[in-house]
Amino acid sequence: MNHVESQSPSLTVILWMAGAIASFCALASGGKVLSGIIPTAEILFIRSVMGLLIVSLALFYSGRRSAFKTENMRLQVFRNIFHYAGQYGWFLGFGFLPLAEVFALEFTVPVWTALIASTFLGETISAKKRFAIVLGLIGVLIIVQPGLQIVQPAALIVLAAAFCYAVSHSATKALSAYDSPMTVLFYMCLIQAPMGLVLSVFDWVWPDQIQLLWILIIALTALSAHFCMTKAMQCASVTTVVTMDFMRLPTIMVVGVVFFAERPEISLVIGGLFMLASNLVSVSRRR
Q: Coiled-coil region(s) at which residues (predicted)?
């Protein structure tokens, strides 16, 4: 019997979430290292090509060739336009902001998702959801501190990236009625590769071997992060996963301090706690 499967469910989800957190931190570190050296569009292009190769081989050798076909190409394109924009803004943020601040602002995705669902999908926002949105927005204000200091454009870019991720997540949910997760992953790489090529062709910088290795790490950890998160969701409740996923923030703080000499502000910690509270309220069930 598989060793992990023989363990308790709590240990299983801890192991999957540890893999997800480690993957996200390695992914962010790669973006930080390459920031200002390799253009963002080029990183995303090479990453998409590598991801396309990996996913294609996995589908081919597992016999799941039906996953190469989508039942809703228009929705795939729509999703990937916003997902690409979200990734682009996320990677840009690494060049100007501490790693932990980028992660903290990314935790606004549930807030934007709720607002999008209410505005465009006609979903009703409950009192609990409204309270979660208020908590999330308070967290943003504490981190960004408008009026107390000059708001960095990079922070606004990351917030815009979080909004794009929210649109992408909503589209992913809609796609689940048509395509498998592997199909979504395949078309993510297939559609985003030419997008990255078009944006990078006039600003191409040939990466050296070390830089190419970092891009490979980015490609692999992007896939492993989402795989581990999906497996964790299968093993535990959304509340448990969201709570454990928040450990990304202190983990990336340590990475930033140790490897990039970053100094997180106390406002980031306080704002991050509001983000955690917002996410927990959002996913908690009524008793």
A: none
Q: Helix or strand or coil: residue 185?
A: helix
**Gap between the Cα atoms of 24 and 274, Å rounded:** 21
What is the rounded CA–CA span in Å between residue 47 and residue 79? 18
> Does residue 273 fall inside a structural domain?
no
Which pairs with CB-CB distance under 8 Å and at least 24 residues apart come from 143-148?
143/101, 143/104, 143/105, 143/267, 143/268, 143/271, 143/272, 145/267
What averages of pLDDT result for each successive group of 10 residues across the chain (287 residues)?
51 91 96 95 95 94 91 96 96 93 88 81 79 88 71 88 91 87 92 96 94 95 88 77 83 93 88 86 66
The answer to whether 155 and 105 are in contact (CB under 8 A) is yes
In angstroms, how far is CA 3 from the centroid of its own chain?
Answer: 29
The b-or-e profile of 64-85 (16+ CB within 10 A means b, else e) is eeebeebebeebbebbbbbbbb
Inside any domain, residue 22: yes
What integer pLDDT is reported at residue 7 of this predicted model?
47
Contacts of 132 (CB under 8 A, 6+ apart): 110, 111, 114, 278, 279, 281, 282
pTM: 0.86
Residue 283 resides in a domain? no
Residue given tokens 């499967």 in the structure block: 5
Q: How many domains does the chain fold into?
A: 1
Q: What pLDDT is stored for residue 34 in this prediction? A: 96
267 in any annotated domain: no
